[in-house]
Amino acid sequence: TMQMFEQNMTTNSIKQEMMNDAMDAAFEGDDDEEETEELVDQVLNELNITMANQIPGKS
Prior knowledge:
Largest sheet: none
Family: Belongs to the SNF7 family.
GO biological process, one term: vacuolar transport
Pfam families: Snf7
Protein name: CHM2A protein
InterPro entries: Snf7_fam (IPR005024)
Helix content: over 70%
Strand content: under 5%
Radius of gyration: 23 Å
Order of helices and strands: HH
């Protein structure tokens, strides 16, 4: 019936919103940028390159 259809659509909409929120939370990352910078610095240190002298504003 139409009532069951509407109920299923509402339930699916809520589930989709919850899944989107979970995916956003999983993939957003303030830590990602910091981890990436640390990894880049580590690689550059291994190559004896310092970015502080090459990029303005980087300390």
